[in-house]
Automatic annotation (TrEMBL):
It comes from the Eukaryota. The chain crosses the membrane at residues 20-42, 122-142, 222-242, 254-275. GO terms for molecular function: 3-dehydrosphinganine reductase activity. InterPro entries: NAD(P)-bd_dom_sf (IPR036291), Sc_DH/Rdtase_CS (IPR020904), SDR_fam (IPR002347). The keyword Transmembrane applies. One of its GO terms (biological process) is 3-keto-sphinganine metabolic process. It comes from Ceratopteris richardii (Triangle waterfern). Keywords: Membrane, Transmembrane, Transmembrane helix. SUPFAM superfamilies: NAD(P)-binding Rossmann-fold domains. GO terms for cellular component: endoplasmic reticulum membrane. This is Uncharacterized protein.
Length: 303
């Protein structure tokens, strides 16, 4: 019996199997690290969204390096202060960056995205704001750009149906970024912003929180995305003719539309009273104590 087992061991040489297993392990290890290095390598193209030619070149170079699966139009800024007190140049910069910059980006990228979408899924994310549904007090031009971006996204959503390119418009609330520095510059505007828009920097949403909603929207293809309970109310009241993406959301909005609208009938008159009272108080103070008023603060906040 022992002789028989020795004969079997001599006939079944397992060394070649061990060699194949080692080779398989080495090949797997190679492809793992190769893919890790490839997918973690990032290229950077920098351009001003207001400069269409430079932006187009950057997009073409990025697409040549690797096709764009998700295009995020996120450039945005504001210049706080009352419209009549702001410098015209600041208002133009706000329009040029927020809205025209988004149009430039889309115009330059869409021909490439349309060709690529024939064989690969493509998504476009446009970052608007809750200001696209309800004003941001003391930031009238910023509010206008966000309304425009939401309208742009809705129009683009239907234009791109033949190409199966999904469009999402993200409407976050106040987010903890340097953007809020501008909201805090003018004390008068900030005070009323707290009343009208319930602004409190301590309650600002984190960038990770907003990013998680963006990723979820890309995966699900949801069009209108909000990131907090107030956004849920605003979306219900201002969605327009196009219904929500999910049946449950449609039912929710049908059920709560009337209560939310009734709440707005109370809230808006209250806001008007507060704004009128605060501004009249400031006017009386500036009339009685002109040296204590700060006529230059609006110019400083928009420089």
């Amino acid at each position: 019996m022992v002789g028989y087992l020795r004969a079997m061991n001599s006939e079944l040489d397992l060394s070649w199997i061990c060699g194949l297993l080692r080779l398989f392990y080495i090949v797997n290890l190679f492809f793992y690290w190769a893919s890790f290095l490839i997918w973690t390598y990032i290229t950077e193209q920098v351009a001003d969204v207001a400069d269409y030619e430079a932006l187009s070149v950057s997009i073409e170079r990025a697409f040549a390096w690797r096709p764009i699966d998700v295009l995020v139009c996120n450039a945005g800024l504001t210049r706080g202060g009352y419209l009549g007190d702001c410098m015209l140049q600041d208002l133009q910069i706000t329009m040029q960056t927020n809205f025209i910059g988004t149009v430039h980006t889309l115009h330059a990228a869409l021909p490439l995205l349309k060709r690529y979408s024939s064989s690969n899924p493509v998504s476009i994310v446009i970052t608007a704001s809750l200001a696209s549904m309800f004003l941001m007090y003391g930031h009238a031009v910023y509010t206008a750009t966000k309304y425009a971006m939401r309208g742009l996204a809705e129009g683009l959503r239907f234009e791109l149906i033949p190409y199966q390119i999904r469009v999402s418009v993200i409407c976050p609330g106040f987010t903890s970024t340097p953007f809020l520095d501008e909201a805090d510059k003018d004390a008068d505007v900030r005070e009323l912003l707290q009343w009208v828009d319930l602004y409190n920097r301590r309650w600002a949403e984190s960038t990770n929180w907003v990013a998680s909603h963006v990723i979820a929207a890309i995966k699900s293809g949801t069009f209108l995305v909000t990131t907090n309970p107030l956004g849920l109310v605003m979306a219900t009241l201002s969605r327009g003719f196009v219904p929500a993406d999910s049946f449950l959301r449609v039912i929710f909005e049908l059920f709560f539309y009337v209560p939310f609208r009734l709440a707005s009938l109370i809230y808006i008159p209250l806001v008007r009273l507060i704004v009128r009272h605060k501004t009249n108080t400031w006017i009386r103070k500036s009339t009685l104590c002109p040296m204590e008023s700060s006529p230059e603060k609006h110019d400083e906040s928009t420089s």
